[in-house]
Amino acid sequence: MKRVAVMTSGGDAPGMNAAVRAVVRAGLDKNVEVYGIRQAYQGLLAGDMALLTSREVSGILQRGGTVLQTARNEEFKTPQGQRKGQRRLNENAIEGVIVIGGDGSLRGAQKLHELGVPVVGIPASIDNDIWGTDTSIGVDTALNTILDAVDRLRDTATSHNRAFVVEVMGRDCGYLAVMAGILGGAEIVVTPENGVTMNEIASSLEDAYIRGKTHAIAVLAEGAPYQGPELARFLEQKHIGFEIRLTILGHTQRGGSPTAFDRLLATRMGVYAVELLLSGESGVMVARVGREQVPMPLKDCTSRTRQITPEYFDLARILSR
Fold first, then answer.
1. CA 172, 176, 180: angle at the middle one, nearest 5?
2. For residue 296, which phi and psi values (nearest 5 degrees)?
3. From CA 206, how far away is CA 219, in angstroms rounded?
4. Distance of alpha carbon 50 from alpha carbon 227, whole angstroms
C-alpha cells in the first residue's frame, strides 16, 4: 500500500488534529503517501483531497477542531453515493482509508469496507457512546471543559445563594453529565438513561437548601426528557429556596486545546490505525481496552451503543449528599 487517505467526520472533537498528525507521520515513516479528504464524506464525493506532508501537519497537535473540517452528507447514505465515493478513491489511486469520527462516521466506514475498500476507523466523539472502546478521542477534554465551568458556576452560586441548572451535551448518552455530576459535586444528575423527573430534581435541590447549603448544582444532559429552559421555569415556580439560574454550555464543550490524555490517545490510535491498514486489516476500529489498543470489528461497534456503567449512577447519588 503506497497511498492512503484520512478524513475527520461527524461532530468535531478535541484531539482529531493530533490523530491526523499521527496518521500522516506514521505513513511517512512507512514510505506511504497520506492524502487528507476535506469535509468528510461530502469532500470524498467531490474528490476534494490533497497530499499531506509533515509540514502540513506541523503545529496542529495542540489545536482543537479539525484542520480537515467536517460536514454532514445525505448522499453518501445511499448505495449510489457509496459507489460514487469508491469511484473517487479509485480515481485518486487511494488504496486505503482511515476514518476519524463518531458512530455515523464509522457506519460510513463500514459501508466502504463492504464495497471492498480497506478501511480502519478511529473513535472520536465527546459523548463516549461508541461501543467497543473504553474511551474516545475528545471525551477527556470535553469533560474537563465542563468541570471548569461547573467550578466557576459554584463560586457565583455560593456568593448569591443560587441553584444552577447546567445543561451539557449528550443527546443519546449521558456519560458527560454523570461524570460531571460525580467530579463536579452536583446535587443531582439527569440523563436520557436514568429517568429523573422534574419533581425529583426540585425535591433534591430543596433538600439541599433546607440542610443549609449555600448553593446547588443540577447537571442535565441535552437528551433528557426535558430541556434546560423548561426545567429552570419549573423550578422557579416550585419556590425551592434557591434562586434558579440556567447555563447551557453548548458547543463550548467541543472546542479548545486537547488535554495531554487526548493528545496521547489520539496519537497512539493514529499510529496504530496505519499499522493495521498496512498489515492488511480492514473493517475494524481502533479501540482502547484497559491500557491496550486492539482492533474491533466495525460491524459490531456500529450495531450497538456503549452504555454507562451502572455504578456511576450510584456514585452520583451517594456523593450528592
1. 145
2. -120, 140
3. 15
4. 42
What's the pTM value of the predicted model, to 2 decimals?
0.94
Question: Which residues have a catalytic role annotated?
Answer: 127
Three cell numbers written together for 321? 449528599
Task: Report how far Cα 26 is from the mean position of its chain's Cα atoms.
Answer: 24
Encode the chain (321 residues) as per-residue pLDDT tens digits: 999 999 999 999 999 999 999 999 999 999 999 999 999 999 999 999 999 999 999 999 999 999 999 988 999 999 999 999 999 999 999 999 999 999 999 999 999 999 999 999 999 999 999 999 999 999 999 999 999 999 999 999 999 999 999 999 998 899 999 999 999 999 999 999 888 999 999 999 999 999 999 999 999 999 999 999 999 999 999 999 999 999 999 999 999 999 999 999 999 999 999 999 999 999 999 999 999 999 999 999 999 999 898 899 999 989 887
Contact 299, 283 (CB under 8 A): yes
H-helix or E-strand spanning residue 159: helix 139-160
Task: Give the DSSP per-residue string, 72-100.
Answer: --SGGGSHHHHHHHHHHHHHTT--EEEEE
Helix-strand-coil percent breakdown of the chain, rounded to 5?
45, 20, 35
